[in-house]
């Protein structure tokens, strides 16, 4: 197999046949399968990473096609969940790997179950609150994770919760050494994401703020570059750990300006995530959430309890309300709005900007839609 499909990987002396075998045994979870995550998945699938777990809450839309690789017009027409569309395309690229999918809104009550058992997590998300949740869960479960974000022509990446490098001058025979053995050792004394809050412009690279992709946009090349940085670090993690980066990398492609910064001095010994007495605060937040999505005129509502979509569709039939129902969601067409409901309790309300108004529409539909 190495002589054929992965021959060019094996010929690269920093990977070799041992590195290819390490990729085949790797278990990587990708949270967020849009502009960054879809490229992560394609790169790792082509490299033969043995198990990829894809987690995303959204479905493919035409506005995604400008920047989110592998997705097609047919995916958007069918409104396929992103993880389902990705799995179908990845199967045509590499049928030998295992691809697991979760159509889920990652929250404090499910994240540990979703990501546990993986060797590494790749960030493909677009909001800071979700990254803070990932940060807490990864430190609690001792899972290394690779942060990446991009907006306009600017992006950054950092490796969080990586093991310390005990032997930087590894012999060639150590290339491809199991990451599980390294994880059992000491952790690298570097800051976590929570330590960096207020010190780096993390909020400005978040869809929760005004400067989001829906208002200022993003170009595909910066997404390709940041995904390339993240996935190359993932390859190093399994095949040549001594080469992994310990600095924050930033790049503005339009101005063509890059920086490489050492952040070790920013580690907070009292940090509730990575400090001496961690409490992982974001893992304890369980509540209904509502937020404007990265797009115009839509609000996402997350309910703690799951929804019985079949029961709701029966009520819609009684009220002669038009809808489409499939294995993934219930798409309801109201007089002035459209709302999509998911099994996990989420709802996306279209045609509304006000969060309170969106919550009222959501409540109406899940309680008594034909009144």
UniProtKB/TrEMBL annotation:
Domain THIF-type NAD/FAD binding fold: 6-272
UniProt-listed InterPro entries: ThiF/MoeB/HesA (IPR045886), ThiF_NAD_FAD-bd (IPR000594), Ubiquitin-activating_enz (IPR035985)
MF annotations from Gene Ontology: nucleotidyltransferase activity
Pfam families for this protein: ThiF
Phosphoprotein among keywords: no
Record keyword Transferase present: yes
Keywords: Nucleotidyltransferase, Transferase
CDD domains: ThiF_MoeB_HesA_family
PANTHER family associated with the record: ADENYLYLTRANSFERASE AND SULFURTRANSFERASE MOCS3, UBIQUITIN-ACTIVATING ENZYME E1
Protein known as: ThiF family adenylyltransferase
Native source species: Ignatzschineria rhizosphaerae
